């Protein structure tokens, strides 16, 4: 068994950045360069070795929920091909790999003892990574709630948070000696507001109060899981949470538009950072949603439980959010980048309009704005001083078409990543303690409700044959990862 010993230094332990004017941009020694994936998007093996359905299995098998009826039943078949995938990561010079554990693969009903065959897969994956010199970065939850827990009420009920803490302890006991960096939740905003508000993500419910309840119980789950991790992990292991805070911009400086931006910031960001970082919900969130709920599902002591000591904050960024107040008596514009649905993921924000700014966009229709990433990092540098920051998702879906020789040239993705990595460097130079950057994604994969229609990978996957072909962006990123140096454009 390969072990991550207490004396091993986790890469990325010193802030700061250097730049030689007129030459390449240099990142700090030990800066963590990686790529990210999630279990349901790549593993496949949906019915093997004791795994039971998650909410995404159920959702994707429901007609009309995903593009072309695509499912994650096979996805990238990573469950059977992980050794080859780790060898590919090593070839590309990655220093770290961020992956998630499938809750129903480890604990099929969301309660009770673990299925050892499920844990054995992750033990083998981690050992393979360590043997290749790649730091494993583990996320406990990337949206694949066991269906049995959803049938019992899902995230809108308190018991789910308690079940999650039990699951966290199981995984920590199994892998704590080998994994140095742990993340409790990935993007709880999506779990709560896309899953229970707009219904464009699993489980596909459309109840604004359920979305707010889910957000609270995800906060509670994070706190309880952090306690469980601290009890089981060695002292040198680090515990983080992965958020996708919105970079919200008002369309104008009018009071109404600025208030719309404040309202969305509360729902998108402060609903999680309030309890997790500061131990309290923002009062304006309660005021904005008072017509929907009295928040009586928040029990005494809950926000204190959510406010656990963190060793880092993981931030995912793709595009900013531009909003305005909707004129009186008009329907809101829904260009919020979160899928088509007549139901809003923004409880209490019915009179906010969302807008597409002019300029370049990715295949997802998301505007390209690297300055938003610098802005995001500097926001949390100021809001949580002393807390190391990691960019754990950033990337672009592009129209990847092979040339006559079967090679994939993706200059749009290279340009996107280059500009965003430069934005990270600007934040470093301004004093932000940024420790790593993880490209989304290592592989083309099952892109949730978009099925296989959108490709984020730096490695092309032929889903019919499972052949992997590194794109030009993979070779470009490999040079960056090995050198820690962003060449001049």
Automatic annotation (TrEMBL):
Biased composition (Polar residues): 1-11
Alphabetical list of Gene3D superfamilies matching this protein: Glycosidases (3.20.20.80)
Record-level GO BP terms: cellulose catabolic process
UniProt GO cellular component terms: cytosol
InterPro entries: GH (IPR017853), GH_1_N_CS (IPR033132), Glyco_hydro_1 (IPR001360), Glyco_hydro_1_AS (IPR018120), Glyco_hydro_1_beta-glucosidase (IPR017736)
Keywords: Carbohydrate metabolism, Cellulose degradation, Glycosidase, Hydrolase, Polysaccharide degradation
Documented EC number(s): 3.2.1.21
Binding site for substrate: 41, 142, 186, 318, 440, 447-448
UniProt organism field: Streptomyces cacaoi
Protein known as: Beta-glucosidase
Active-site residues, Swiss-Prot/TrEMBL: 187 (proton donor), 393 (nucleophile)
Keyword Hydrolase on entry: yes
Transmembrane segments: none
Reaction equations catalysed: Hydrolysis of terminal, non-reducing beta-D-glucosyl residues with release of beta-D-glucose
Assigned protein family: Belongs to the glycosyl hydrolase 1 family.
Region feature (Disordered): 1-23
Listed GO MF terms: beta-glucosidase activity
């Amino acid at each position: 068994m390969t072990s991550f010993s207490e004396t091993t230094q986790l890469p990325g332990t010193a802030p700061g950045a250097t730049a030689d004017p007129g030459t390449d941009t240099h990142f700090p020694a030990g800066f963590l360069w990686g790529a990210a994936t999630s279990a349901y998007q790549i593993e496949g093996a949906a019915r093997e070795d004791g795994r039971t359905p998650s909410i995404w299995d159920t959702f994707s098998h429901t007609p009309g929920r995903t593009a072309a009826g695509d499912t994650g039943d096979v996805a990238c078949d990573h469950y059977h091909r992980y050794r080859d995938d780790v060898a590919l990561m090593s070839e590309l010079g990655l220093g770290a790999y961020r992956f998630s554990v499938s809750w129903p693969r480890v604990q099929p009903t969301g309660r009770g003892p673990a299925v050892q065959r499920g844990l054995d897969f992750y033990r083998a994956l981690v050992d393979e990574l360590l043997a290749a010199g790649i730091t494993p970065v583990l996320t406990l939850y990337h949206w694949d709630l066991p269906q049995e827990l959803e049938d019992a009420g899902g995230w809108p009920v308190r018991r789910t948070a308690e079940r999650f803490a039990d699951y966290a302890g199981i995984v920590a006991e199994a892998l704590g000696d080998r994994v140095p960096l742990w993340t409790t939740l990935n993007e709880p905003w999506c779990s709560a507001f896309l899953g229970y508000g707009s219904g464009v993500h699993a489980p596909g419910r459309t109840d604004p109060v359920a979305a707010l309840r889910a957000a609270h119980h995800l906060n509670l789950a994070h706190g309880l899981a952090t306690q469980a991790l601290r009890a089981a992990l060695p002292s040198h292991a680090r515990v983080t949470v992965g958020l996708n805070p919105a970079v919200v911009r008002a369309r104008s400086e009018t009071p109404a538009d600025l208030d719309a931006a404040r309202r969305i910031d509360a729902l998108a960001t402060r609903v999680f950072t309030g309890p997790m970082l500061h131990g309290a919900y923002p009062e304006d969130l309660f005021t904005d949603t008072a017509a929907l709920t009295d928040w009586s599902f928040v029990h005494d002591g809950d926000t204190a439980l959510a406010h656990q000591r963190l060793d880092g904050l993981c931030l995912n960024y793709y595009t900013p959010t531009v909003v305005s107040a909707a004129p009186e008596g008009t329907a809101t514009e829904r260009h919020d980048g979160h899928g088509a649905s007549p139901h809003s993921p923004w409880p209490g924000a019915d009179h906010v309009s969302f807008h597409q700014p002019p300029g370049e966009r990715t295949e997802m229709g998301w505007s390209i704005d690297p300055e938003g990433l610098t802005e995001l990092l500097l926001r949390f540098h100021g809001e949580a001083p002393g807390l190391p920051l990691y960019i754990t998702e950033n990337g672009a879906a592009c129209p990847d078409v092979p040339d006559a020789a079967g090679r994939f040239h993706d200059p749009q993705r290279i340009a996107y990543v280059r500009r965003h990595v430069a934005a990270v460097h600007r934040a470093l130079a301004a004093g932000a303690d940024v420790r790593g950057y993880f490209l989304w994604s290592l592989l083309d994969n099952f892109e949730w409700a978009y099925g296989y229609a959108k490709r984020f990978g730096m490695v092309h996957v032929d889903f019919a044959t499972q052949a992997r072909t590194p794109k030009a962006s993979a070779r470009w990123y490999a040079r960056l990862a090995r050198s820690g140096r962003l060449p001049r454009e």
